[in-house]
Amino acid sequence: MRFLLPLAAIALFAACSGEVEDSRPGQPVKTRQQAFKDILRSFEPMGVMLRDKTYDADKFLTLANDLVARRDAPWAHFGPDTDYPPTKATAEVWRQPEKFAEKKQAFIAAADALLAAARTKDGKQLDAPYQAVYDACQDCHKTFRRR
Ligand code: HEC
Question: CB under 6 Å to ligand 1: residues?
Fold first, then answer.
């Protein structure tokens, strides 16, 4: 009983959180999911600043630089044969590689434009380029990520 108890507790936790472990070598699914979480971690605080009118030019610029530094991280981990649990990607990623690449490029261009705008340190010029990045995320997710 002493050994069974912790195992049962772990199984319960796994069921509750809905997590499936990525057991493949190199963990491509987990790695790309983490890369997207890191992108979100740079991106979201910029939106908070704009919404709450707490714009800080230096902080915003740091976040925009972080976003651009992280924008390339997920893509190499969408290799062939990496459509397996726990992925939230749709099969369209592998069925429509050109469209996926197009959405990726649009996102990269939008992130670059946001960084260029952040460098002006003019808080009034940031809503549109921020929104454009947001739209690029959504535009890809609507086809390529399950909700
Ligand atoms: C070119 C397509 C594309 C773009 C652009 C894109 N994503 Fe995603 N995103 C995906 C796909 C596909 C997944 C699912 C990955 C998986 O589970 O294997 C995903 C997953 C995520 C996740 C969930 C990670 C997890 O732990 O399950 C977050 C958060 C996320 N994206 C945020 C963003 C944000 C924020 C942006 C824009 C700043 C963005 N994404 C831009 C395709 C994209």
Answer: 29, 32-33, 36-37, 39-40, 43, 87-89, 93, 100, 103-104, 107, 133, 136-137, 140-141, 144-145
